[in-house]
Amino acid sequence: MVKENLLQVQENIRKACEKSGRNPKEVTLIAVSKTKPVPMLKEAYEDGSREFGENKVQEIMDKYPVLPPDIHWHMIGHLQRNKVKYIVDKVCLIHSVDSFRLAEEISAQAKKKRVEADILVEVNIAQEESKFGTSREEAFCLVEEIARLPHIHIKGLMTIAPFVENPEDNREYFRQIRQLSVDIMRKNIDNVSMSVLSMGMTGDYMVAIEEGATMVRVGTGIFGERNYQKTCETD
Ligand SMILES: *Cc1c(COP(=O)(O)O)cnc(C)c1O
After folding, report:
1. Residue 220 Cα, ligand 1 centroid: separation in angstroms?
2. CA-CA distances (angstroms) from residue 155 to 60, 135, 173, 184, 225?
3. Which residues contact 88 (CB under 8 A, 6 or more apart)?
4. Cβ of 36 below 6 Å from ligand 1
5. Structural domains of the chain sorted by starting position, each given as residue range(s) with its CATH number in brackets
6. Contact in structure between 79 and 96 (CB atoms under 8 Å)
7. Tell me: the pLDDT tens digits for 198-219?
8. How many other C-beta atoms can be found within 10 angstroms of the C-beta atom of residue 17?
């Protein structure tokens, strides 16, 4: 099932790129494997997936040692400062940085582990109460502050758009965050690149690609529905 799903998602990515005149090579598909068991990740790996997204530190720690070393792990969930030390040398990109204090801790732990940490600044573009992320207005300031820290490098922006029935409803938000990334890029801040735009999930990744996403985070569309009940029982 994973294989068919992956092929379908890749085909959809190709279509969205074609529609918007983009090169599919510009778009990285992150297989969001949170709550899914290791054999399923192995299946996706066998089918060619190398980018995996997880939203819990513990799950990265559990899966990291038992899966091939050429996997790129993406931390896409809210990150607590006291847990940065466990993953800073294991993940290739932290998508969810929304405060200076968190960035400071990433910088400190990266130094300690002798790595360079690549991060995205998470923006709550629709200003939803329930979501993490900085506001559009605060984003400039936050980027400028984080840029001065050593061993941490801003590569772009990430957003989690609202949950909607019709993906077209999120098009305007994707446009806004893309515009924000262009505005930040124009400031030419040292140590800041805006090459990554992480946006789009199972319900809306095609629209996100049409609006400029360079990374899409697809879980359900690849691995099927998540059963949260079960994970809670085993926790
Ligand atoms: C779970 C999750 C996804 C994937 O969601 P799907 O709707 O299953 O594709 C993407 N991004 C983040 C931040 C997530 O937590």
Report:
1. 8
2. 21, 18, 20, 11, 30
3. 94, 106, 109, 110, 113, 115, 117
4. no
5. 2-222 (3.20.20.10)
6. yes
7. 999 999 999 999 999 999 999 9
8. 18
159 lines ligand 1 (CB under 6 A): no
185 exposure class (CB count in 10 Å sphere: 0-12, 13-18, 19+): middle
Cβ of 206 closer than 6 Å to ligand 1, yes or no, is no
- Ligand 1, pocket-test mutation among 33, 55, 95, most atoms within 8 A of CB: 55
Distance 31 CA to ligand 1 centre (A): 9
CA of 221 to the centre of ligand 1 (A): 10
Could you tell me how far CA 186 lies from the centroid of its own chain? 23
Asked if residue 170 lies in contact with residue 211, where contact means CB atoms within 8 angstroms, the answer is no
What mean pLDDT value characterizes the chain? Answer: 96
- Residue positions counted in the chain: 235
The pTM for the full model equals 0.95
DSSP state of 154: E
Pocket test of ligand 1: the residue of 32, 33, 165, 209 to mutate, having most ligand atoms within 8 Å of its CB, is 32
Within the chain, residue ranges assigned H as helices are 2-20, 38-46, 57-63, 84-87, 100-113, 136-147, 171-185, 205-210, 220-223, 228-234
